[in-house]
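Quick illustration, no need to memorize.
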Amino acid sequence: MSLHTEEQLEQQEQEQQTQTECDDTKATSIPYFGYTLIRDILLTDLLGKDAEQILYWSGKNIARKFPLHSSDEIVNFFSEAGWGLLTLVKADKQTIEFELSGEMVKRRIHEQVDCSFHLEGGFVAQQIQQQKQCIAESYLTMKEKAGKVFITVKWDKKDTLT
């Protein structure tokens, strides 16, 4: 029978904790089939012909519930929500453009006939609106061959929130 030193016990506990964290991460990863089943099939059926507009405004509503203070925070939110890899492409005085990519985005574009990214577009538009304190709208450009979506948000500094 071997006696374990306190250091060995601590190391074993750390290894178990690391393994548990890895297992938790795997368990909370989003399965593609389940995600698209709800997002691209069920919601589209429930919302009907108004799905894109309702999803856009739903994205804005989600953004109001999760206010973020920078583009970096928006990028991190997308990663945590499993919405894809969001990258800031360019920004100027009245426009900001993001690229939405990643395996989930690419598969949705290639495999789902009527997939929509209006939820994401509305979310980004509202976040920018809150950050800039003026009315903002997003425009989506899908690059099907590349499996990417560009989200361009435009605002007018004269159209401020009151």
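The helical segments are 6-28, 32-47, 51-65, 71-81, 103-111, 118-132.
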